[in-house]
Amino acid sequence: MTTTSDRVETAATPDRGQRLRLIVILGSLIALGPLTIDMYLPALPTITTELATTSAVVQLTLTGTLLGLAIGQLVIGPLSDRFGRKRPLIAGTALHVVASLLCAVAPNIAVLGSLRVLQGVGAAAGAVIALAIVRDLYTGRPAATMLSRLILVMGAAPVIAPTLGGELLRFTSWRGVFVALAAFGLVLLPVALVGLRETLPPSRRRTAGLGGTLRDYGALFHDRTFVGLVVVAGLAMSALLGYVSGSSFVFQGQFGLDQQQFGLVFGSGAIFLILATQLNPVFLRWFEPRQILLAAVSAGAFFGLLLVLIATTGFAGIVGVVGGMWLVLFCTGLALPNAPAVALSRHGETAGTAAALLGAVQFGIGAVISPVVGLLGNDAVAMASVVAGGLVLSLVVLVTVVRPWTLPDIEPAAAPAVAAA
Fold first, then answer.
1. How large is the angle between the packed helices 259-283 and 289-313, nearest 10 degrees?
2. Helices H, strands E: what count in the chain?
3. How much is the pLDDT for 348?
4. Structural domain span for residue 59
5. Per-residue model confidence (pLDDT) at position 9
6. Residues of the signal sequence (predicted)?
7. Beta bridge pairs of residue 414
8. Rg (alpha carbons) of the chain, rounded to whole number
9. Are 352 and 289 within 8 A, CB to CB?
10. DSSP output for 121-166
11. What is the largest CA-CA distance in the chain?
12. How far, rounded to the nearest angstrom, does the alpha carbon of residue 8 sit from its chain's CA centroid?
C-alpha cells in the first residue's frame, strides 16, 4: 500500500535544474572513489622508499583499496535496498573519513594496506548508491545519459587527483594527501545529508533480510546477459585500473618525469575519457546503448593491441605511449556508461543489489589485475599488456555471452522521484 508520504516523495520528475544539481552531488560522491585511488599515485615511489618496501608491495595498497570498494558495494548495495539510500551513504562516507585519518599516521606498509581496504569500503557507499539513485529515477537511454553526465563529474577526479596530489607534495608528505582525502569526505557528509532526498520510499524497500539478499544475488547470477554485462564492465574497468596502477612507475621511473609532470600527463588522459562520456548522449540520439557498447569495446581492443605494439617497439617513446593511451581511454569512456545502463535496466526492482554486484565485479577484477603490472615489470610493455588484455577479454565476453545484437531496444522511461532537495 502506498502511503501519502510515498506519493509526495515520488510526485514529480526532476526538472533540468534539479537534474544538474543531482549530477553534481552524485558525481561528487562517486568521485570519492577515484580520488582515493588516484590522489596518492605521485607519492608511490616515495612511499616505497620511506616505508622500506618494494614497488610491487606498495601497489598492493592500491589493490587493497579496490578490494574494499568491491566488498563494500556487495554489503552496502543490499543495505540501501532495505534501509533506503541515505543512511548507508552517510555511514560509509563517515567510515572513509576515519580510515583516511588513520592512513595518515600508518607506521608501516602492512597497516597502510589494511587501512586502505577500509578506505575503499567507505568510498563504496557513494559509488553504489549513486548508481542506485540513478536507477530509481531513470532507465534506458535517460539512464545512460545521466551516467554520462555523472562520469563527466567523476572524470574530473582522475584529472585533478594526481595533479592535486603532486601539488600537495610540494608542501606536505604523502601523509598529508590522506588528510586532504579526509577533509573532502567531511565536506561530502553535510552535502549528502542536506542536498539529497530519499529516492526509495518505504513501500519499495526490500524487507526479506539476509535470506532475501542472497536470493536477490542468486536471481542476478541466473540472468546470463546481466552477468555478461557485469563482466564486460569489469574487464573494461580493469584496463583503466591497469593504467592507473602502472602509470606512476612507467612515466616517472621509465620516462623520468617528476611528480608534477606525471600529474599533468596522467590528467591529460582523463580529458579523453571525459570527452567520450560527453559525446555519448549525442550518440544515444541515433544509437542504442548496446550498439555503442559493442563499437566502443571493439575499438578499445584494437587500440589496446596497438598500444602493446608501440610500447614493445619503443615507437615515438613517451609520446607514442601517451597517444595510444588517449585512444584507449576514449573508447573506455564510451563503454563505461552504456554497460551499466543496459545491465541495470533489467533489474529495477533490486537496483541497489544489482548496482552493488556491478560495482563489486568492476573493482574486484581491478583488484586482481592491478598487481599484474608490477609482477610483469612495471614498464610500458607491462602496462600496455594489461590494458589490452582487459579490453580484448571484454570484447570476447561481449560477443560470446551478451551478444548485444540479440537484445531488445530499451524504451526511455523515468521513475518519478526527485532526489535533489
1. 150
2. 15, 2
3. 61
4. 10-414
5. 38
6. none
7. 138
8. 20
9. no
10. HHHHHHHHHHHHHHHHHEEHHHHHHHHHHHHHHHHHHHHHHHHHHH
11. 67
12. 33
Q: How far is CA 63 from CA 101, 102, 255, 290, 372, in A?
A: 19, 18, 24, 30, 10
Which CATH number do you get for residue 242?
Answer: 1.20.1250.20
Distance in angstroms (rounded) separating the CA atoms of residues 240 and 203:
39
Examine residue 5 and state whether it is found in any structural domain, yes or no.
no
| Contact assessment for residue 23 and residue 212, using Cβ atoms and an 8 Å cutoff | no
Dihedrals phi, psi of 138, to nearest 5 degrees: -140, 160
Mean pLDDT by runs of 10 across the 421 residues of the chain is 37 63 86 86 87 85 87 86 88 96 94 94 90 80 75 64 81 92 94 85 74 79 90 88 84 86 81 84 87 95 97 93 95 86 73 76 76 85 94 96 85 43 45
Of 65, 179, 186, residue with least CA distance to 118: 65
State residue 208 phi and psi, 5-degree precision: -85, -5
Total domain count, the chain? 1
- Does residue 1 form part of some domain? no
Cβ pair 421, 197 in contact under 8 A? yes
Judge whether 2 lies within some domain.
no
Residue 420 lies in a domain: no
Grid coordinates representing 17? 535544474
pTM of the predicted model, to two decimals?
Answer: 0.71
174/168 Cα distance (integer angstroms): 8
pLDDT number for residue 155: 57
